[in-house]
Amino acid sequence: GTQALQAMAQLELLSPMAGVCGTGLPVLFPQARCDKLAASSWYCFRSHSQRSPGLDCGPHDRFSVWRLQTSRYKQKHFQCIAFETLQTLNDNRFVFSKQAKAKLVAIVGDGVVSPLGGATWSDVMQHMVKKLQWVDSGFEMVVVNNRDLKAELPRKAIESLMLSAEILIAVSVQDDNSVKWIQGHSENVPTIVCFDSSMELPIRLGGRNLLPAAPLDRLRVALPGNDIGQRLKVLRTVEQTWSCYNSDNVRFVLLYLINDFVSPVKSLQKLRANDLDTLIRMISSCGPQILACLLDSNCRKALSCLTKCASTDQVCSYRCIASYESPQLEAFSLCILQKNNCLGLSAEIPDQPDVKPLKIFRGLALTHDVAEDIFIGWLGKFQWSWRVVAGQNAAYDQFPCQFQLFYRGKARGSMWYDPVFGVNTLDERFVWRRRHYRVKRGNNPGTFLFSVLDNGVVSREYWRIVDVTDDLAWGLFFYSGAASVVGQSYTGAVLVSPDGIWPADIESERLKLAFEKCGIKHWEMYQVNNLSCKNPPLDVPADAQLHSTGFWTDGNRHSLGETVIL
Description:
The protein is an alpha+beta fold. The protein has helices spanning about 1-10, 120-135, 150-160, 175-185, 215-220, 225-240, 245-260, 275-295, 295-310, 315-325, 325-340, 370-375, 395, 510-515, and strands at about 20, 25-30, 40-45, 60-65, 80, 85-90, 100-110, 140-145, 165-170, 190-195, 205, 210, 360, 365, 385-390, 405-410, 415-425, 430-435, 435-440, 445-455, 455-470, 475-485, 490-495, 525. α4 links the parallel β9 (about 165-170) and β10 (about 190-195). α2 packs across α7, α6 (about 225-240) runs antiparallel to α7 and α8 (about 275-295) runs antiparallel to α11 (about 325-340).
C-alpha cells in the first residue's frame, strides 16, 4: 500500500482518474468518516449512488482517486476504501490518439540528469512533447521512464504502445533489464536511435538496421547511391545535432527523423540547395558579387566556415557570419539570397506557442505608448534600455555583453531597436556588433513587428512584452521570427534587467508564470556573460525621442546605486 501511495504522489495526480483499488478484495469501511482519514494520503472513493453502501468491492471496480485536502468528504457522500495497491486502469499516458500523424516513443533512464541546465532527461523529453505539437498537433510522442518497464500494468500498456510506434528514441538507457526489454519489444519499430545508451541497443532507420550491421551491408556502404550510406549520413546529422545539447536541437532531431521516415515536416522540406541549376542561377544573377566575395579574405572565410556547419546548426552559422562580417559578404547575401532567392527557400513566422502580451502595467490597462516606454526602459538614465540576462535562443544568446537600445525616431510613430553585442570571433578577436531594427506597433498593446537587414538577409519578427515589473527591475520579452530566404523559422525569449544580473526574485511565482506563458522551462535559458564589457558602441541619434511625459515618477523609480559597471 505504501508503494502505491508513493507512486501516486510521484505522478502528482491531483485530479480524478480511473483506477483499481487493490489486487484482491479491498477492505470496505461503509461507516467510516472520510474526514478522520489522513489528509496527506491517497484514497479511493466510490459514490453511494453507484453502489449500495456496505456492498463488497471487486478487484476490478472503478473508483475516482482523490487526494484528501479538506474534511468535506463525509460519510453521506462517499464510502472510504483502504487498499493495498493502486493500479492504473487504461493508463492514458501510454496511448496514441487516432489523429496521430507521427508516433514516437521515448524511453529515458530513470532520474538521469541531462546537460540542459540540470533538468532530467525525463523532464526534457516531456517538454519536447509540447514543442512537437507546436509544429504539428498530429506529431505525438509518449515518454516512458525505464522504471515503468518493471511494473506489470504499465509494462503491458507500453508493450501495446510499441506495436504502433514509428520511431523509438532511447536516452541514457544503460541497465541490462531495460536493454533486454527494448531488444525484445522493438522488432516492429522501423526507426530506432539511441543517445548516451548501451551499445547493445539496435540502431535502425526506415526499417534498415545500421547497428548491428550485417556483413553485406558493410560492403554496400561504399557503393554510390546506396540507401545504407544515405541513412548513415542521416544518423551522423542526428548525432551531431543532439550532441549540441540544447532544447532547439533536441526538437530538431525529432522533427528530422519524422520528416525523413514518417511524415513531411514543412519547415524541413529543403534545408540546403546544392544542385547544378542553383549554381547556374547564382552565377548568372550575381556574378560580380560572387567575384568580389572571393577576392575578400573575410568573405572567403565566412563562406568556408559556413560550409563546415550542419545545415541545421544555426549557432554555428550565425557565429561564422558574426565573426567575418564585411560589406562584400552583405552584398553577396543580398544578391543571392534576398533579391534573387537563388536557393528557392521560404519560411514563415511560427504561430505557436501563442504567447499573450502583458495586459496591466502599474495598475492600468497597457497602452501602445506605455508599451513603447517599457521597451525604451532605462535609456536616458543609463546608456542603454536594457541588458540581457539570459535568452532562450542559442543562436543569439551565445554572444556576451548584450545591450538593448530602444528609441523613438524623429518621424511621427517611428521606433527603432539596436541590439549591441560582443563576439569572440573564430580567429580569437573580440569585436562589437550592432543591428538596426525597424519597430512597428502590433494590433494589440504590448505586441510589435520587427524587421532587420542582417548581413544581406531580411528577418521579420513578432515580439511581445510578456511581463515587466512596475519598477522595471526585470522584464521578459518573447519573439517568433523567420528569415524566409534562408528557410529558417525560430522563436526565442530574453530576460532583461537594468544591470544584466539575474533578478533578486528569480524564484518568484510571477517570473515562473511568465516563463510558463512562453512555454519555456528555466533550463532552456542561456545565461549571457556580461563581464568585462568595455567601451560598447551605445550612441543613439541626436534626434532620438525617449519616454512619454510622466512615465518616470518618483514613486516608480528603481535605484541601482551610484555606479554601473560595464
